[in-house]
Amino acid sequence: MERLGNPQEHIVMIPFLAQGHIIPFWELAKKLQERANLSITLVSTPLNIQKLKSTQSNTCKIHLVSLPFNSSDHNLPPNAETTEALCLASTALQTPFQQLMSNLASKQGKPPLCIISDVFMGWTNRVAKLLHITNISFSTCGAYGTAAYHSVWLNLPHRFVKSDDEEFVLPGFPETCKITRAHLHKYVRSADGSDQGSKFFQPQLSLSLGSFGWLCNTVEEIEPLGVQVLKNYTKLPIWCIGPLLPPRMLDSSSSNEIFGNRAGKEPGLSAETCVQWLDSYPENSVLYISFGSQNTISPAQMMELAKGLEESGKPFIWAIRPPMGFNLTEKFRDEWLPHKFEERMSASKRGLLIHKWAPQLDILCHKSTGAFLSHCGWNSTMESLSQGVPLIGWPLGGEQVYNSKMIEEEMGVGVELARGLESCITKNDVKRVIEIVMENEGIRRKASEISEMIKQGAGQNNGKKGSSLQAMDDFVSALLAYSRT
Ligand code: UDP
């Protein structure tokens, strides 16, 4: 394969600081390195760079650069993981980033070819303009979720309805695409333009529209509506280059090698132990449960979920954290679950509870995993659907509620069980939805079809590039051509 570009051309990438954004940025950097002959630098805070270095292979030529950043200067705890703290920390990177870009330009005698920044880091457009660099925005989410998220934050349409149940059309979406105020996270529901969320997202998302074009972590074929709405909204070139998953996940003929810990986080259980546990169950029989890297549910919800799981009779693996209101890193207390729940599940081998970081890719790629109860973060959604694993939705924040809506209404590959921390679910709801999703052949068939589309789009079949590979090459060509004008 002929690689476009030359190593004198330099791309600098800067992800938003949440784990769910850093992982796809890292995969994008590796994909770019594979397809283009360019120098690539990824910058972030020292803690994130240290974690990435711990997972970097010897052959990986991506430069990792820590921006001088002291969390105590910005009143942030060192392991800040709440959305508010991450937003604050992201904007605090502006000054050191600008300094780094100026230094790079003077050292290399010319500015870098482009900055690829997260859509949440719209401020890089200011730096880019000042230093005459092209800015590209990258949405680590899907097209539908990205378009809906932008539509809500920039228009705040929920202000114009009278009740939480009154339906309204998302600005920019077709008339049939309706939501209610009750769909929205309470953080968004109370937004009126003067709140902290609006003050961060409105300028950052608007500034991202000043980019040369957008990269989106999806396959065009799986969400045609979302891609169309996003194109209409941005009026910019959109390159759908996803999903940015490890190549082995996209290749049906690949070996069963262990993925292990990609994030450099403290593992709750080794991937080998999980795989062995899964080996003892029949195909599609195990439910996997995880709410991603930042979220958890309320104590009452956790109790009902546990009871529903036990009564459903299905084997499960649950990546479990302390419930809402408690420190996510504190020791797990027995009182958060039904009496002797963990003991019973462990003795009967019915349920495996993972208290720290779970080897999610190894779990989802195992043939015994039959459904994923997920917060519908985009990485989790793509990891699941790429393996044809249907979803049970429990969106909690960000654009997850729109992902969950698309999964159920547009794709037909899952059913929503609950929404947010307020849903009063009972153990019977849990049992009912598990049964619908795990026993329904139609849902499983559709999930397999989506898996096929993802693999086709991201792969190379009979010498013909899939749409995502083609989009990646088109992106690099457009960038090089623009730099020569
Ligand atoms: N993840 C994991 N183990 C865990 C929790 C999360 O490997 O115990 C990974 C998961 O595979 C995914 C990412 O963390 O790649 C979570 O990203 P997502 O977009 O789903 O959700 P977020 O954490 O951003 O809310």
Task: Report what the structure shows.
Strands 3-2-1-4-5-8-9 form a seven-stranded parallel beta sheet, sandwiched between helices. Strands 12-11-10-13-14-15 form a six-stranded parallel beta sheet, with helices on both faces. Strands 6-7 form a two-stranded antiparallel sheet. By secondary structure, the chain is α/β, with parallel strands linked by helices. The model has no long low-confidence stretch (mean pLDDT 92). 42% of the residues lie in helices and 14% in strands. It has two domains: 10-244 and 455-483, Rossmann fold; 266-439, 3-Layer(aba) Sandwich (Rossmann fold). It is built from 18 helices and 17 strands. Helix 6 crosses helix 15 (400-411) and helix 11 (299-312) crosses helix 16 (427-439). The chain has helices at residues 19-35, 46-55, 83-91, 94-108, 124-131, 143-155, 186-189, 196-208, 224-234, 271-279, 299-312, 341-348, 360-364, 378-386, 400-411, 427-439, 441-458, 467-483, and strands spanning 10-14, 39-44, 63-66, 114-118, 134-139, 168-169, 178-179, 213-216, 238-240, 286-290, 316-319, 351-354, 369-374, 391-393, 414-416, 460-461, 464-465. The protein binds uridine-5'-diphosphate (UDP). Uridine-5'-diphosphate (UDP) is lined by residues 18-20, 23, 290, 292-295, 319, 357-358, 360-361, 377-380, 383. Uridine-5'-diphosphate binds at residues 18-20, 23, 290, 292-295, 319, 357-358, 360-361, 377-380, 383. One of its GO terms (biological process) is terpenoid biosynthetic process. GO terms for molecular function: UDP-glucosyltransferase activity. Pathway: Secondary metabolite biosynthesis; terpenoid biosynthesis.
